[in-house]
Write a structure and sequence with these properties.
Chain lengths: 281, 257
Amino acid sequence: MIQALFKYHFLQNALLAAVLSSIVCGIIGVIIVEKKLVMMSGGIAHTSYGGVGLGYLLGFEPIIGAFLFSVLAALGIGYIKRRGAARSDVIIGLLWSLGMALGILFIAIMPGYPPDMSSYLFGNILSVTKTDIKLMICMTLLVVIAITLLYNNWKAYLFDEEFANILGMKTAFLEYLLLVLIAMSVVALIRVVGIILVLALLTAPAAVSALLTSSLKRRMIYSVLLGCVFCIAGLWISYELNIASGAAIVILSVLCYLTVYSVHSILSKSKRKRITAGASR
Amino acid sequence: MSNPAIQIENVSVYYGQTPAITGICLDVGEGEYLGIIGPNGGGKSTLLKAVLGLVPISSGTVRIYGKEAKGSRTVLGYVPQFSNVDKNFPITLNEVVLTGRMKAGISPLFRFSKSDREAVSKILEKIGIAHLASRQISELSGGEFQKMLIARALAMKPKVLLLDEPTASVDASSQEQIYRLLDELNKNMTIILVTHDLLAVSSQVKRLACLNGKLVYHGEPELSEHVVNSLYGCPVDLIAHGVPHRVLKEHGEEKTE
């Protein structure tokens, strides 16, 4: 694969895409897991399918459509949640299905032969184009800048929103910004693992690093590194065995989480035993 | 009252159609130590949150040092209910207390200054949790966690400290330490304490408010049976717990034990 990497542009693009998406999902994933926003992220991701369909229907870049739809979904969910008018899990569920349904509708009424949607649904890192890379670079930069610039604000807000409010922090702004950042991350990840598989890449690295360290900053760094490992190893597996890259990456991430989880629980159990043994002696 | 720190005028708060508190009028003077008691769902926490601006007020006004409360209220330090804070968040005790030094609004590239850090370590020293500064909050006991929340509120350098059941799920010795601390703080700070702990009410606070949707009583911390009955509506239960008489008349003896 190393030789091929120098030879083929698509592999270089794929590698770059893997690194970029790892950065995004490492940082945002930790926040999603901590704030228990996993389902909301799933909702935002699936709503974007409508945008992909609209892109095909009206003849613009589908990923732009996905971006618009997911940002709108994020803002909508945030607004309804803030108003407290309806239960947000209901709204998420509805948007989730509505987005998919719109996507199917747009593709159905589109004139001509229907495009292959599976690269959006399941991702194909090997088909990432220059345009995709540019978009991903933009998204990654925006996410990294937004998080690092306001790191202390984020930390205070994520830990205790109420207290941040009393301090006079603009918590509404932070909440909406966070949702938009999630939407952006989802869009950045769609080309790599697809709409359906995006949740695993957002949560697995963060969940693994949560088992390894209890510092927020280190968690983010570990998640980025783990994401890189998952994506690049998945890319290699998919290249060598000729299977879909999204599937390879997701299966690898979940297996890794399960392994680390079981090792972690065995270790802590034996540690507990040692402590009890020491205490009873 | 010559110099009220907080003036609550005819404040009502509704959650949807349900009134949580109605027509509350209450003045809290500078340097006062006010205890608020009442049954569950009596609106104690809601009243605190209304003062803090965390819930929208349906009618009435809250004035803080004579000014109508709007936007940031950093003269108010808030110690939330223990159970409302995420205890598994990856953050150390020191970092939590430092958030009390953060500025209003959004501060890009915010860094805590040396004086912030010094102020925080002084507070930790005072409260007696300095040795836990680098501990993850998930590894703290209930009492330590509660003291951390008080430290965070103090880091704001507030003039008024509002506490929502600071001794719930805290062991007896930490409870005593917390009350001693509040007593000490009251020397130069106004304190509003929401509590279920009727023992604390009688021995600690200087004034008392009893809340059950409405303000049932406000005055000296001596509860008559009549007030307790209209507050809890179930005198049998109270006598079974042995609360009003023992608490209000005999706490002095208990201390000498």
